[in-house]
Each structure stands twice: as C-alpha cells, then as structure tokens.
Design goal:
alpha+beta, Pdz3 Domain, 17 helices
Length: 645
C-alpha cells in the first residue's frame, strides 16, 4: 500500500498499504486484546455454517453500496464486528462511520442491536430461540468529495467495508459465499473465482473471510484484462479500468515491460504463492488513487494517462512492483506481531522497516529490472530519496526509524504540520536506504558473489506454492542474513533501525555512488513540475530554501531548522508574492537562483489566517537538486543490482 521518493501522494499510497490473505501459521502468538470485555476473544474454531454476503454496487450516481448478509446463528448472545484493523493500512482505519441503516432481522422479524459501549466496531444482539439464520442489511456510503470509490465509469469494492462478521472465531475459519451486482455491462477484475453469473450479478466460489477481505474488486465500463506471462505458468494478469477507452491502449514496449515485471519477480524469489495474480489497476482522474497489497492481487491507481503520456510520468511507476513484492513480503511472510486472528485484534507494526522498507527497495529494483524505468530514472529516483535522508529528515535526531512504524496508528495518515521533524512512516524510504546498505555489504563480504537476492530467495522464496503464512521475527531476519554471509547483522540492523542519527547514506557510497547537488533538476524530477494540473502536485524546494508547496502556493512542509523555518515561515501559509512579484513556482526558482550572487534576503509575502506579512529569508545557496555520481575506483554495485535476471 503501498505506495514517490520524497513524498508518496495519496494517489499512490505505498501502504501503501497490507491485507490478511490465507491461513495463518499454526501456533502463532496473538495478542487477544479488545477494548471491551463484552466482545468475545477469537478462538481457533471453525464457524458453523457459511455466511452469504451480497453487495449491490449498481448505484453509481449516489455512490451507495447496499449490503445484504445471511449469517447462520444459534440462540443466545451474538456480537457482530465491522473490520477495524485493515491489513496494509497498519492502523485501526476501518471506516465504520460510513456504515448506515443497519437492520438485523430473523424469520422476517426485526431484532434490536446495541453498539458496544467501548468498541464502536462491535454490535451486540440476542438471538431468539428457534432462530438459525440472521439477516443483516445496511449501506456503505462511499466518499462523495475527495477519494471517490465509485464514479459513473468505475468502482473499487473492498469487502472489509461492506461486511460484518461474527466475533469469537479466527476469520480464517469463517466461510463466506460473496456476490455482487454491478452496473449493466460492466466488467471486473478480482482474485475471487467466479461460481455463477446471472445478468449483472456474479456469485463467487466460497472463500474464508480472510480471503474475502484480501480479494477486492475493480470494475468499470471500460475494462481490459491483459495476461502478463506465458501459458503453463501461474497466470498473472493486468486488470485495467479507465476513464475512457483510449486510456486502455498500451504499446508493445509498455506491454513488454509489464510482462518483464511478472517474470523478474518470480526470478528474484524463485517461487510464487498464488494460483493466479491480478494487478487491479485504475487509470482515472476521479477514482481515488490507491496502493494496497493482497496475496493474490493488488490495488493500484494512477492518472488516466499512465500509458498515453508514458514519456512524462516515470515518477511513481514503481507502484505495481512494490505491491507485487508484497505477495511474498507481507502476505506469505509476515512479521509475527502483524499476524492477528481477526480484523479487530490490534496489529503490531514493529518490523515494518522490513515489511515495507525492503519492499520499497525491491519495488525500485524490479521496476528497473523490468524496464519500467531506465537505469538513469532509477538513479534519479534514488537520488531524491537519498537527499531526503541527507537534508530533510532532522527528526531522526530524536526518533528512530523503528519508532516511525507507529506513525500509521499515531497520525492516521493525516497531514502533519512539520513532517521533516515529526517524521512520517519513514520505515518505507528510510528502510529502503537501510536495505541498500545491506545489499552492498553482502556484495562486499562475498566479492559480489552473493547479494540481497540470495536473502530474498532463502527468506521469501521458501515453500513454493504454499498459501500458509509464515511469520518472522528480528532474529529470523538476522539468521537468514547470516546464512548468506556471516557478519554482525544484528548490530548492523540495530545501528540503522533502532538508533538515532542512523548512517542511512552509507549504502549509497558502499554501492559505488555519491550524492551531489546542482542547480538543474534531473529529467526524472522535472516530471514532477511538468504536471502542475494535478490538484495534489507538490513543488519541491526542500533541499534549498527548505519548502515544499502546492501548485497554488500553499506551504506543504517547512524543513525544520532550514532557512525558511529560521525566518519564521509556517506550514499552512500561502506564498502570495516573491520579491514583489506574484507567486509562481518559476518566480520562486528565479528568486532563489538570483539570491546566490547577492546578499539581499528573499522576500516572501505570506497569507496566513487572514493576515498578510512579509518574511525575509536569508538564503544564498542557490537551487539544489540531487543527482548520483560515480565514485571513481569503486565497484558499481548499483548497476549490478538493477541488472535484469
């Protein structure tokens, strides 16, 4: 969920981002925690009977998903749960406030329910004698402003949002028959397997509730399914929904690169843990962008012109690779504190710097190996990430990388006033820098005979074809690294993940490259500035004056103790003028460049809370854009890392 080098936009969440798929490893240690003693703790016993969940998703005009469930029950007390801890979001983010109109009935008679006093995700009721089946009806009201989940041309259906399940059982032991009604003529992609079809209604084969939540649907008026591998292999498909038919068209080189992604991932891990895999991919200016992993599918969303403006949109093209890697790292192999028995037991995020950090690393690498990026684009993207950790993360002086694994829960992925100081889920890109250092170290220790590829195959590539999740701990990671090359890996990892001011830049030098800055952005970085029509576009001056701004001049972030911060500039303010000229990104660039040869401060006219004030920023370092440069006389491990297998 996944999810850019310096800030991953809401369109491409690498949360990206990560869902419970199939059976959990037997004997796993779970935290049986609830905020209410009235909610039964999950037990590893199958639920008697099979639930049926039907979703009518045909109301695209008003964005309403109408749900009918049939739940086998026995007389007595029953608690129904709405999923709270959503895998991939790493936080209690289930949108229970969007559930409305809940009605429970049995044998045609309404049954009263009561929401738990301390747990808003739990609904209690008494099942009368003689009742063996409960009917539940409600609506899920999808967002109607930002973050659309349904438009008049496409939709994304995530089952955790449109279902209730009985408490007291592991969700892997609850069987469900799901079905959906779509607008007439729409087609869909999903990891679910079709059972029967009647008109616009599709009924799927029975699955566990775990698998149901792990198998979303993308559907649309304009849909295309493209096979990405050869016959005889476990099929991998690219299921695309788009705003218009023209956006579904791809060139042969584009198709070749996406096919290479499927093959390069399997070559990396030497295994797969799916019967078939579906990239669910929306190309839209309306539907919410997304990046969320599942065991046999992934959710991804990009702008409508992903294919048609290919030459101009390299940024964020690593999304598909990132989410695909999660089938191995995060779904099949999962940190032990994330493997919970249901979706209402709190998850632990302490190893997200492995789960997300190494996935972020492999996402970049596989994007380059597949040819979705050129080597130059890979290096330029990595340069931007590295610059962030060299110049724009002073918060690592008071927080460790491991502590940022709490951010999804603590900050709920909301905007932060001073992100560079507060930090924000840096286990993604900071973890990426950590794993680059590990890869370079393995190569140095073995004379480039072994690398992180060997770790990936040994750690994630085991049990080919198995769907049973295997959990891991810090010690398991250390042992697997030791199996590739003996070293003090515990100390190496702790110095980077668990210590303040970690040496995250060391891996770049160890790979044979260094970070330099010039007054000209790379071709890759220029593409951020070439698409200012996006409402979420960010202009990045973080490495110079210390600001990032929206296209309208609103200050998105101020680098803590950077030049603008020291001058008293605040996030949330809007830059109205620069040195007396009406603000534009070009005007600000020109002012920063001119100040390099003068002594006068850069005058920013700011509007904030209804007031105007002029702030002089005493910065004379000129424009600063990151690039990678070879270190003469050293092995070029970076080039070898991205070489296709």
């Amino acid at each position: 969920m996944s999810f850019a080098p310096f800030v991953r936009s809401p369109r491409v969440r690498c949360r990206i981002a990560l869902a419970v798929s199939l059976a959990l490893a037997a004997g796993g240690a779970f935290a049986q925690v609830s905020r209410s003693t009235a909610v039964p703790a999950p037990q590893d016993t199958p639920y008697p009977g099979t639930l049926a969940v039907h979703v009518d998703a045909s109301d695209t005009r008003q964005g309403i998903f109408r749900v009918h469930e049939t739940i086998p029950v026995a007389p007595g007390k029953l608690t129904l749960l709405y999923p709270e801890w959503i895998p991939g979001d790493h936080s209690p983010s289930g949108p229970v406030a969007m559930l409305a109109g809940l009605k429970l009935s049995a044998n045609g008679r309404p049954l009263a329910w009561t929401r738990d006093k301390y747990d808003v995700y739990a609904f209690h009721l008494d099942v009368p004698a003689g009742v063996s089946k409960l009917d539940a009806d409600f609506e899920y009201l999808s967002p109607r402003r930002d973050g659309y989940e349904m438009t008049d041309r496409m939709l994304m259906l995530e089952w955790n949002k449109v279902s209730l399940y009985p408490a007291g059982h592991y969700t892997r032991g609850i069987r469900v028959v799901p079905s959906v009604t779509l607008p007439q003529g729409w087609r869909f992609g999903s990891a679910l397997e079709t059972g029967t079809q009647s008109g616009a209604t599709t009924t799927f084969k029975p699955v566990s509730y775990n698998n149901l939540v792990d198998s979303p649907i993308y559907a649309g008026q304009y849909f295309k399914r493209v096979p990405l591998n050869e016959a005889g292999e476990a099929p991998v498909y690219l299921d695309v929904v788009a705003d218009a038919p023209k956006y579904l068209e791809m060139t042969e080189p584009q198709l070749k690169a996406h096919r290479a992604l499927a093959s390069q991932a399997v070559k990396l891990f030497g295994s797969h843990h799916y019967d078939h895999y579906d990239f669910l991919f929306s190309l839209s200016e309306e539907l919410a962008g997304n990046g969320l992993e599942h065991h046999q599918s992934s959710e991804g969303g990009m702008g409508a012109d992903y294919f048609t403006a290919w030459a101009d949109n390299a940024p964020n093209r690593d999304l598909l690779a990132h989410e695909f890697v999660h089938s191995w790292n995060g779904k099949f192999r999962r940190p032990a504190d994330l493997a919970t028995p249901n979706f209402n037991v709190p998850m632990g995020d302490s190893l997200l710097w492995v789960y997300e950090g190494q996935t972020q690393y492999w996402g970049y690498v596989l994007t380059a190996r597949a040819g979705l990026w050129t080597p130059e684009q890979f290096r330029d993207a990595l340069a931007m990430t590295a610059a962030n950790y060299e110049r724009n993360r002073p918060g690592l002086g008071w927080r460790t990388l491991e502590d940022t694994t709490n951010d999804a829960t603590a900050a709920h992925r909301e905007a932060l006033p001073y992100r560079s100081w507060q930090m924000s889920e840096d286990y993604y890109s900071g973890g990426q820098m950590l794993w680059l250092a590990v890869d370079a170290k393995l190569r140095a220790l073995t004379g480039d005979r072994k690398s992180l590829d060997d770790f990936a195959r040994a750690f994630f590539g085991v049990d080919n074809g198995s769907y049973v999740t295997r959990t891991y701990t810090f010690d398991d990671v250390v042992a697997a690294l030791d199996g590739v090359a003996k070293y003090d890996w515990a100390g190496f990892l702790r110095a980077r993940a668990y210590a303040l001011n970690p040496p995250l830049m060391d891996g770049l030098a160890a790979a044979g490259w260094k970070l330099v800055y010039t007054d000209t952005p790379s071709a890759y970085e220029k593409q951020y500035d070439s698409r200012p029509e996006s409402p979420r576009h960010i202009y990045n001056f973080a490495w110079s004056i210390g600001l990032t701004l929206t296209k309208g001049g609103e200050i998105n972030d101020v680098r803590w103790n950077g030049p603008a911060f020291k001058a008293g500039v605040s996030t949330g303010a809007t830059v109205v003028a620069v040195n007396g000229q009406a603000y534009s990104s070009d005007v600000l660039k020109e002012a920063i460049a001119a100040a390099k040869t003068g002594t006068a401060p850069i005058q920013l006219l700011l509007k904030y809370q209804g007031n105007l004030r002029t702030v002089p920023v005493n910065y004379h370092g000129g424009l600063q854009y990151p690039h990678l440069q070879r270190i003469a006389g050293t092995p070029d491990y970076l080039d070898r890392i991205i070489s296709a297998k």
